[in-house]
Design brief:
alpha/beta, FAD/NAD(P)-binding domain, nine-stranded mixed β-sheet, six-stranded mixed β-sheet, binds flavin-adenine dinucleotide
Length: 401
């Protein structure tokens, strides 16, 4: 019998906690290194489509746990900036509803649920631990090694596997794939969760020149909004809420009302980056890359968290379980790469196309042309075409729910 194998997971975000949970469920001893002094998630809402929920189920979350995480609703299509429908997805057909079902989830709740599940599965969670160096080792030979900085000095540990789950600015990626660098998308995004019980809870997205505004209910009492717009990298506003008000002035009344109802202390803004060329591989030596560290995509497909959860749900059945049972690591890593890289690359490319057609499109005739085109095509057909992404099944399962 193979002794209990060990993994060091760098990064305690959604990808890292879910990955550690997946490894622990397959019998591995997993340790998460998180550079922040506390485990926590600053963030607003996240739209999790059906494939993300399939991944959560594969990680052991049952219907009750998923129900407690967020609000199940539907994606509705797109409106122009005045709130007039450009493309409306019908909600009276079961096949279309299946594809457009989406869960509005508060990131803090998702993060906490993953942390509790990881702890319950025996994962070691270490905070204040910033990974600074990684030696990938060899899949069929020497162990991998991670060095990290703590308040009291530096530490180094060997393990059978290192999971690079340290997000957009991944230190693991910088060491293992130094040529891959994030690039500014040209857009930045305000995000906020506001108390609300009356707003339409469905995912509604409005497109205007160089900008997009979206709303989604997260619970009976919370609505999430985001305002994504083209803006120079790294700039700041003296008053972010006033700037949001000004940027979206003249948009549909619900947009103006949501911004108006926002507590300035709850408003956040992040410049949006992505990894345009992807990575040449998701594995090297004994290192495997997951989440934004592996495949950061523009948020225009709403698939970042969902694909991070998919990565995690694949780690257990494709790598951890077979290797713990005695299989060689190299083919298991190759199977993970083959399952994850083409899919996430295709989603990232689709997110770029979506941005060009949606939020990044300039004003004037371009808007009229795009809007006229969208009004002419049937929403049901568009939803069914988009179904190929959400119709994902975790390895080892038969059909998605
Ligand atoms: C504006 C915007 C809107 C979005 N909307 C959606 C959406 O609707 N749906 C969706 O699915 N996705 C969405 N996303 C994407 C989603 O948020 C990300 O894809 C997802 O959070 C990635 O999770 P992660 O764990 O890979 O990375 P992160 O959440 O960045 O976590 C990385 C963790 O690693 C830690 N870390 C970093 N470096 C080190 C180090 N050297 N040592 C130790 N720890 C380290 C960090 O502190 C952090 O905790 C959106 C993104 C943006 C920017």
């Amino acid at each position: 019998m193979v002794p209990r194998l060990s993994a060091t997971v760098v990064g305690g975000g959604i990808a890292g906690l879910a990955s550690a949970l997946s490894l622990a469920r397959a019998g591995w001893q997993a340790t998460v290194l998180e550079r922040a002094p506390d485990f926590g998630e600053v963030g607003a809402g996240v739209a999790i489509p059906r494939n993300g929920m399939a991944a959560l189920r594969a990680l052991g979350f049952d219907d009750d746990a998923i129900g407690a995480l967020g609000h199940e609703t539907l994606g509705t299509g797109f409106q122009d900036l005045h709130g007039r429908w450009l493309l409306r997805i019908p909600d009276d057909r079961a096949d279309v509803r299946w594809t457009t079902t989406i869960w509005g989830v508060h990131r803090e709740r998702l993060h906490a649920a993953l942390r509790h599940a990881a702890e319950a599965a025996g994962v070691d969670l270490v905070t204040g631990a910033q990974a600074t160096a990684v030696r990938p080792g060899a899949a069929d030979g020497e162990p991998a090694e991670v060095t990290w900085r703590t308040a009291v000095g530096e530490r180094t540990a060997e393990s059978d596997l290192v999971v690079g789950a340290d997000g957009m600015w991944s230190a693991v990626r910088t060491q293992v794939f130094p040529a891959a660098r994030p690039r500014y998308s040209g857009s930045t995004s305000w995000r906020a969760v506001i108390p609300d019980t009356t707003f339409d809870g469905r995912l509604i997205e409005l497109w205007g020149p160089g900008a997009e505004f979206g709303t989604l209910r997260l619970s009976e009492t919370e609505v999430y909004w985001y305002g994504y717009f083209q803006h120079p990298e790294g700039s700041s506003f003296d008053d972010e809420l006033a700037a949001a008000r000004a940027r979206f002035a003249g948009w549909a009344p619900q947009v103006v009302a949501l911004i108006e109802a926002t507590d300035p202390s709850r408003l956040m803004r992040h410049d949006v980056y992505h990894l345009p060329g992807g990575l040449p591989a998701f594995t090297q030596g004994r290192v495997v890359m997951v989440g934004d560290a592996a495949h950061a995509a523009l948020p225009t497909m709403g698939q970042g968290a969902a694909t991070a959860l998919e990565d995690a749900a694949c780690l257990g059945p494709l790598i951890a379980a077979p290797v713990q049972a005695g299989a060689a690591l190299a083919p298991a890593l190759a199977a993970f790469d083959a399952a994850r890289r083409p899919r996430t690359r295709a989603i990232a490319r689709q997110a770029v196309r979506m941005a060009r057609f949606g939020a990044d499109l300039g004003g004037g005739w371009r808007q009229s042309l795009r809007n006229g085109f969208l009004r002419a095509i049937p929403g049901g057909a568009v939803a069914r075409a988009g179904g190929s992404i959400v119709r994902w099944t975790p390895p080892g399962t038969v059909g998605s729910r």
